[in-house]
């Protein structure tokens, strides 16, 4: 068989994206209390999550702001649109690590790990130092 006949087949095989599961967390997720929705997305082989919906986005007619942030100049920024999952890397086996989680309720940034339990359940573990000393919350896919 001549090479020119194999070329279309080779092109087709090379164009398929590998299905390693790395993008399974991409999409919309409700927080455990369903008070907010987080959009997880991929950018430059890292994964991020931002708040895109709040059940109660206003307090006394004004947008909820990041009032607990340790940096005073950031305390007036809106919570809606805020990035709370940053720079996660796919490690295989339904696990994303080496990222940081910003907790709007406390103003703290902690190390994090994301673990996909099934296609609709994502465990988010935040910790300081060792993952054994942390807390896990569960997100539910919002479709």
3D structure, described in words:
- This protein is globular.
- The termini are far apart.
- About 10% of the residues have low confidence.
- It has about 140 residues and is mainly beta.
- An 8-stranded antiparallel beta barrel has the order 1-2-3-6-7-8-9-10.
- The protein is about 10% helix and about 50% strand.
- The longest helix is centred in the N-terminal third of the chain and has 13 residues.
- The chain contains 1 helix and 10 strands.
Task: Summarize the model shown.
This protein has 143 residues and is mostly beta strands. The chain contains one helix and ten strands; from the N terminus they run H-E-E-E-E-E-E-E-E-E-E. Strands 1-2-3-6-7-8-9-10 form an eight-stranded antiparallel barrel. A two-stranded antiparallel sheet has the order 4-5.
Percent of residues in helices comes to under 10%
The end-to-end distance, rounded to whole angstroms, is 48 Å
Q: What global shape is seen?
A: globular
Strand content: over 45%
The secondary structure category is mainly beta
SSE topology string: HEEEEEEEEEE
Strand runs, count? 10
Strand arrangement across the biggest beta sheet: 1-2-3-6-7-8-9-10
Task: List segments where confidence is low: pLDDT < 50 over at least 5 consecutive residues.
Answer: 6-18
Let me know the average pLDDT: 90
Largest sheet: 8 strands, antiparallel, barrel
Number of helical segments with 4 or more residues = 1
Rounded to an integer in angstroms, the radius of gyration calculated over CA atoms is: 19 Å
């Amino acid at each position: 068989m001549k090479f020119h006949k194999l070329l279309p087949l080779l092109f087709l095989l090379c164009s398929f994206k590998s299905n390693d599961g790395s993008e399974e967390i991409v999409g919309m997720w409700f927080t455990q209390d369903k008070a907010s929705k987080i959009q997880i997305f991929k950018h430059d082989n890292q994964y991020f999550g931002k708040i895109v919906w709040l059940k109660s986005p206003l307090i006394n007619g004004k947008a909820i702001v990041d009032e607990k942030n340790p940096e005073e100049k950031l305390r007036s920024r809106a919570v809606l649109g805020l990035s709370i999952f940053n720079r996660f890397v796919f490690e295989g086996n339904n696990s994303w690590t080496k990222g940081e989680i910003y907790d709007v309720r406390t103003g703290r940034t902690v190390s994090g790990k994301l673990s996909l339990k099934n296609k609709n359940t994502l465990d988010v573990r935040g910790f300081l130092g060792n993952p054994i000393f942390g807390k896990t919350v569960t997100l539910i896919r919002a479709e």
